[in-house]
Automatic annotation (TrEMBL):
It is found in: Cytoplasm. Homodimer. Transmembrane segments: none annotated. It holds the Pfam family HSP90. Its main location: cytoplasm. The keyword Cytoplasm applies. Residues 543-618 are annotated as: C. SUPFAM superfamilies: ATPase domain of HSP90 chaperone/DNA topoisomerase II/histidine kinase, HSP90 C-terminal domain, Ribosomal protein S5 domain 2-like. Molecular chaperone. Has ATPase activity. The keyword ATP-binding applies. Belongs to the heat shock protein 90 family. This is Chaperone protein HtpG. InterPro entries: HATPase_C_sf (IPR036890), HATPase_dom (IPR003594), Heat_shock_protein_90_CS (IPR019805), HSP90_C (IPR037196), Hsp90_fam (IPR001404), Hsp90_N (IPR020575), Ribosomal_Su5_D2-typ_SF (IPR020568).
Amino acid sequence: MAEETMQFKTELEQLLHLITHSLYSHREVFLRELISNAADAIDKVRFEGLNNEEILEGHSDWKITLKADEEAKTLTISDNGIGMSREQVIENLGTIAHSGTKAFLAKAKEADLENNPELIGQFGVGFYASFMVADDVTVVTKAHGADAVKWESNGTGEFTLSDADKTERGTEITLHLKEDATEYLNEWTIKSTVKKFSDFLEHPVVLLTTKKDEETEVEEEVEEQINSQKAIWLRPKSEITDEEYGEFYKHISHDTNSPAETIHYNAEGAIEFKALLFIPEHKPFDMMMNNDPKSHLNLYVQRVFIGNDFENLLPGYLRFVKGVVDSSDLPLNVSREILQENPMLDKIRKNLTSRVLKTLANLKKTDYKEFEIFHENFSTILKEGLQSDWENKEKIADLLLFESTNKEAGEKTCFADYVENMSDDQEEILYLAGENRASIENSPYLEKFKADGKEVLLMIDPIDDFVIPQLMEYKGKKLKAVNKGDIDGDDLKEEEKEFEGYIGYAKDLLNGVKEVKLTSRLKDSAAVLVGDEMSMSPHIEEMMRRMGQDVPPRESVLELNPEHTVVKKVQALYNANEKDPKVETLTKLLHDQAVIASGAKLDDPAGFAARLNEVLAD
Ligand SMILES: Nc1ncnc2c1ncn2[C@@H]1O[C@H](COP(=O)(O)OP(=O)(O)OP(=O)(O)O)[C@@H](O)[C@H]1O
C-alpha cells in the first residue's frame, strides 16, 4: 500500500503540543510508558495464545529489548507482543483519543504540567510521552495474519503510514532523540531508569549494546537483562522495602503519593492465592475524572496476567483499592467469560473484602489521623457498601465518621462511640441529614434533643440520606432520622383538643401538608415540617431537582409548638374570628418558615415576601 499521510485527532494534536512544549522535567517517564505498553502487548498475545496457539507463531520467548544507537541518536524499544494491524495503528496512535485525553487537557491547563509529569500516565496518554524526548518517532509493527506497517511522525499535526518489511510479530518503536535528551543513549541512564520503574515487570527487559572484543577488535552485540523480573507480590514480605512497594503502587495506580496502607499476604487453605493490595491516601486523578463504579484489581493466574476487569474480585464499594491477585488455583486456559463465572473468584472476593475492611479498622485504631484523611477521600464510596454488602454492613458502619451535636464543627465521632455515650433510657441512634453543618446545627429538629442533652449525629455527605437508612440499626440500636416520623413523647393529645378547629383549618389551607399537629419537640421555634419515616430529606429532593430528576410532590406533617407566642396568637385570632385575614397570613408564614428550616425551597418566594411585609407593616 502506498504511503499515506493522516491528521491526528484534534485532541491528540493539542496533547502533543502540550507534551512537546511543556514537559521538560521528569521526562524519564516516557521509558516506563513504552515498556509498560510493550509488556501489555506481550500479555495480550500470551493470553490469546492460550486458546489459539497459532497466533504465537512459535515465537513466545517473551522479551522487551532496548537498543541505543549513539551515532544515529536513536533509542529503540521492541517487543514480541501482539503487534498492530494498519487499522489498529491508525486507531491507537492517531485517531482515537482515549476517554481520558479531554480530561487530561482540561487538567493540564490548570495544573503545572512541568511539575506534574505523572499526569501523562494517569490519563492513559502513555505512548505520546515519547515526544517528550524525541523529535521524530517511528513505529514498525506486525500483528498475526496482517502485513507489517510503519507509522512515523514528528508530533506536529500529522503522521504517515507506509509498508514495512518486518516479518516477525511484534512492535518496534524508534525514538530519534532531541538534542537535549541524548542522555537516554547512555547505558547507565537506561539501566537506572528501568530499575526504578520496571524492575518487577514479569518479562525480561534486555539492553543490547555493541562491545568491541579486545583481542579480535570485532564488534559484537551483547544482550544484558536489566530488570530483576521478580513479580513483587511473589517475593517474601520481609525482603521488600517501602520504596519498592511505593514504586509498584505508583506503577499500577498512577498515583503520585504513597499509599495509606499496603496489604500483602498469601491465602492458604480452601483457596490459595497471593494478594498485594494498596489503599490510597488520596483520590488519584483518574478516580476524580471518571465515575466507574467497578473495582479493577489485576488478576494473574500462575503469573500470567489475565485482566483488570473482573467484577467479582472485589466489590465496587472498595474500588479505591489498587493491586494484584495471583492465584494458582484458577484454570489458565479458559476464556475470560468462563473464568468470570468461576466460584473461586467469589471466595477470593470474600477473603479480600474482609482483609481490606480489617485493615481499615486497624488503621482507624492505630493511626486515626491517617484514617481521617482516608475517610475524607473515600467514605462516600465506602458507604455504598451499606446498600450492597449486607454481610459486612456493620463492619462498614464501624468505619464511618460523622459530625455530631456534641462535637465542634469538623470534629467527628463514630457509631461505636455514639452508642457508648448513650444514656440508658435512649433507645435509638439519632441523626439529621443536611447540606452542611451550618445549615442544620441550629435546626428546629434538634431543639428537643439539645434540651434533653441527647447527641444527634449530623450527616452532611449527600449520600448519607440514601444509604444510612439502609443500615436500619447498629449493634441492636435503631437508627432514627429526627426530621422524619414521630419522636417519642412528642404527642400532645390533650392540648390538641383546644386547637382542634384551627388545626383543621390550617390543614385545609396549606398545600403539601397532609396533617397538622401539635408537638413538644420544639423549644424556640414555632413550626417544623416532618417527613415520612421512609421519605427523602428535602435537601436531597432539591439536589435531585437540580439534576433534572422527577421528584414526587412531598406530603409532610406540619408540627406546631403550642407554647410559641405566634402559634398562641394565631390560634386566639382564629378562635375570635376564623375569617380574619391575618389568620391566613400567619398560618402561611408558619408553614413558610417550616419549609425554609427543613432545607427545602419555597414554592412561592414572592408570596412569602408579600406576607412577611404585610406582617412587618402591621
Ligand atoms: N508496543 C505495543 N504493541 C501493541 N500495541 C501497542 C503498543 N504500544 C501501544 N499500543 C496500542 O496503542 C494503544 C495506545 O497506547 P497508549 O500508551 O497511548 O495508551 P494505553 O497504553 O492504552 O494507556 P495507558 O498508557 O494508560 O496504559 C494501546 O492501548 C495499545 O492498543
